[in-house]
Amino acid sequence: MRGPTGFLLCSLLLVAAHCPEVAAQDLQPDPKTPCANWMGGAPGYPGHNGLPGRDGKDGKDGLKGEKGEEGMQGPKGDRGEIGMPGLDGPRGFPGYPGQKGEKGEGAFVYRSAFSVGLTERAPHPNVPIRFSKIFYNEQSHYDASTGKFLCSIPGMYYFAYHLTVYLTDVKVSLYKKDKAVIFTYDQFQKNNVDQASGSVLLHLSTGDEVWLQVYGEGDNNGVYADNINDSTFMGFLLYPDLDVH
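RESULT FIELD:
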């Protein structure tokens, strides 16, 4: 086989013998070689996505920034609806007692008073002087027929008398329950008109009687009254016993 045909056949055999040696030396042929281009297959499919990597460590906080400028106040919002009442809170401890208040007046006003005058000369001793000129006796606690005041409201009372003295001496006493409480004596001066007076505070119980009376057995009943001279007797309730009423 000489000539051109024989030369071509020898060349092919040499190339075929050379390629297996290269494949034996390296299973992965260099893609740049002519054999790689001649023996390359179709491209493979893309692989699956890999797993996400682990989170990195948190970074350190940066420096605090400067305070920003205050913004403009926004418009006032609409008034909200009233919410539901809240639950009752726990009961507090009792407070300390306050100071005692002043004693008030009762709804009922207690009244007892009289003011009377003499219309004639006093009677003889040892009998009550009957003052029959009535200035005030609205509650009728004074009896003009007996000359005695009868207590209907227990409490503290004030009594006073102012007597004109004429013609003879005067010695009178204020009585409470048949017992003389105070005495007044005035010695008459001739050709003159004198005055005798006295007053006292007494606590009375219901039913107690108070009156004026000439004291003693002598001629000491110079109590006098006329159209220009008066002899008076009076008394009134200062305050009642509220624990009784």
